[in-house]
Design goal:
Elements (H helix, E strand, L loop, with lengths): L15 H10 L8 H14 L4 E5 L2 H11 L7 E5 L8 H5 L3 E5 L10 H13 L6 E5 L8 H10 L3 E5 L7 E2 L2 E2 L6 E5 L12 E5 L2 H11 L22 H11 L2 H19 L5 E3 L7 E2 L5 E5 L1 H4 L3 H10 L5 E2 L15 E2 L3 H8 E4 L7 H14 L2
Helix pairs in contact: 1-8, 2-8, 3-7, 11-13
This protein binds pyridoxal-5'-phosphate.
């Protein structure tokens, strides 16, 4: 059996262990310390928007704390892009709030601004104004932020940006993660850079960052004994994993370049195959990190389905995955309201994510080429 080619696997830069070693030598084996501070500073510098970043245990935790800081409570409604990973929506349920799902548009596969406005109007007509909008930059592709923010401002609703997949992407020159009241990042093992598991909250004031850190470290009041006036969480990042993050920040730019060249590889590979389109930026306003490269297969034109290709790849030990199944089609969210048409559903039916890692070799690429050529010959 040939070695497995993964969709997206960790890719260490080489200096990560140096930072971990320093943590051991100084005995900073805790959810605070120089690596946590350093990693936050590195992210702030990279995002280049005067932001304050708080390092947390996961992207999911960041989203949960973002909702709490936006005042989301039991019985509230939160609008969420349907075409996403479940971690975008689960924290809404943690708050006892109801998700209201919104369809995607065909250009960026992210939240459709028209369906968003329809949703807001209808929820308001039904007597409840949604408290927050969670917009996602799926697979690293920036959402239509000008349009989304215009709708949010029109109805005075806060935007939280789920940039878990989009570190290194930008929209009109502004880095993803810096548009919303809060932006969230993930450093899970499959993301563009990883700390093995981790996340971050991007804030626009020191006050919001301080509140994030306060809530993520059990909400301890300023007193010599343990004193609490708020419910707290244990969501801070460990100084050990932050060391991995500092090493990864040294190579982030080259990781973005490598993922983008994987996308170029797929553009070339499918160029001559009528009926397969590679997911690319709709215009020069969008710059995707191409965390995952994806294709849409038109079975009427190719005579092959997305599943035919997925299974053929699997046969050669190459991982691929259907596009994320929309949240409004998930059994767990069957009762949640949904607004839009069938854009997300069609993407799910015909789309496939392909191996996209920054560590793929020429040999890996030729194995992928062989399977694709065989299936579509
Ligand atoms: C990975 C991911 C998350 C969750 O991040 P974790 O660090 O795994 O908790 C949230 N939203 C999206 C879109 C993701 O891809």
């Amino acid at each position: 059996m040939s070695t497995k080619i993964w969709l997206s696997s960790p890719h260490m830069g080489g200096t990560e262990q140096k930072y971990i070693q320093e943590a051991f030598e100084a005995n900073w084996i805790a959810p605070l310390g120089p690596n946590v501070d350093g990693f936050e500073k590195d992210l702030e510098a990279f995002l280049n928007a005067g932001v304050n970043v708080g390092a947390l245990s996961s992207g999911t935790a960041a989203l949960h704390l973002a909702l709490i800081q936006c005042g989301v409570e039991y019985g509230d409604e939160v609008i969420c892009q349907s075409m996403t990973f479940s971690a975008s929506a689960n924290p809404i349920a943690y708050c006892g709030a109801t998700p209201v799902f919104v369809d995607s548009e065909n250009e960026t596969w992210n939240m459709c601004p028209i369906a968003l406005e329809d949703a807001i109007k209808d929820r308001v007509a039904k007597g409840k104004k949604p408290k927050v909008i969670i917009v996602v930059h799926l697979y690293g592709m920036p959402a239509k932020m000008d349009e989304i923010i215009a709708v949010a401002n029109k109805y005075d609703i806060t935007v939280i940006e789920d940039a878990a997949e989009a570190l290194g992407s930008n929209y009109k020159g502004q880095k993803c993660g810096t548009f919303g009241r809060f932006g969230i990042l993930s450093f899970n093992g499959n993301k563009i850079i990883t700390t093995s598991g981790g996340g971050a909250m991007v804030c626009h004031s020191q006050e919001d960052k301080d509140k994030t850190v306060f809530l993520s470290t059990q909400a301890r009041d300023d007193a010599p004994h343990y004193q609490h006036s708020h419910i707290g969480y244990n969501y801070r990042m460990s100084n050990i994993v932050a060391g991995i993050g500092r090493g990864q920040m040294e190579v982030l730019t080259s990781r973005v370049e490598a993922r983008r060249s994987m996308n170029k590889f797929y553009q070339d590979l499918f160029d001559s195959i009528d009926g397969v389109s590679v997911f690319v930026e709709p215009s020069a306003d969008y710059y995707s990190n191409h965390w995952l490269s994806a294709i849409i297969v038109d079975a009427n034109k190719t005579g092959k389905t997305r599943e035919d290709l997925r299974l053929a790849l699997l046969e050669d030990n190459i991982e691929s995955r259907p596009l994320w199944k929309p949240m409004h089609l998930q059994p767990v969210f069957a009762d949640a309201p949904y607004y839009g048409g069938n854009v997300a559903e069609q993407l799910f039916n015909n789309g496939l994510c392909l191996p996209s890692g920054s560590n793929l070799s020429d040999d890996d690429r030729s194995r992928i080429t062989d399977v694709v050529s065989k299936i579509f010959s």
